[in-house]
Amino acid sequence: MSEIESIAIAGASGSLGPHVLKALVDANFQVTVLTRSKEPGAYDASVKVVEVDFTSVESLTAALKGIDGLVSTVAAAAIENQTVLIDAAIAAGVKRFIPSEYGNCTTSPKVEALPIYAPMFKIKQYLQEKAKAGKLTWTVLACGAFLDFLFGRPILLDFANHKATLFDEGDNRISATSLPNVGKAIVGIFKNFEATKNKVVRISEVILTQNKLLRIVEGLRPDIKWEISKVQTSAILKDGLDELSAGDFSMPIIMKILTGTALAGDIYGCAYDETDNELLGVKELTEEDLKKLVDGKLA
């Protein structure tokens, strides 16, 4: 019998959650969705949906009885409150907890004190303490940037307007993984219970640089003239931190801090040269795969 047969997911309706849910269902796990309020028909009939109070250990414990694994894909604002989920998981006898982290530089000590990353480190430390006491096990999945976001938004290249703002000199390396493959990797974590116990695992579908993408687009469409500008990630980060210190907690300021770190390349360990791709069932993109992806954005 497998160590993990039943899995609960918190945050199933967000950007990543639906992909994780689909991967778990496709892998034939018994899946329970934890939600604040039930919506008829929101999930497949094979999925159990339980309404919970995410601020209540008692409510969550009741919902997690008989559950082997718990994966969190909650939004950034709820990351620090995952201690309640962890306490409930322990009380219910859950064996493995995967916290909501899913970044590219979230495990770098250099970002530990920064506002958007500090809650992730607190959760990781909390999990380590509980695991050391033998109360549950954990796995953090570092997946790089979401490939879907990098190509769906004008982040690395503005495909629609043929513009590129190069971060530093455009050679910053960034690991990226598609949302469906993040879901597949989470299945891999649960299926490889011992090999993924109490550790950070890393996946990377592709390592990108802006200049590499520009070479591809120029090769595919030499007729398109690109407008190029440059910006320093260190300057973006400083601006974000200065404005945050001045009391501006708006999303554009948070995005500056995120951009100044997650797109700064090897300074913050944003590219993974060593991965757990094979263990977790994630295939890397070939050069042809990447060219097709880029070509699709130029169509």
Automatic annotation (TrEMBL):
Coiled coil: none annotated. SUPFAM superfamilies: NAD(P)-binding Rossmann-fold domains (SSF51735). Keywords: NADP, Oxidoreductase. Gene3D superfamilies: NAD(P)-binding Rossmann-like Domain (3.40.50.720). Pfam families: NmrA. It comes from the Eukaryota. One of its GO terms (molecular function) is oxidoreductase activity. Residues 6-218 form the NmrA-like domain. This is NmrA-like domain-containing protein. It comes from Lipomyces starkeyi NRRL Y-11557.
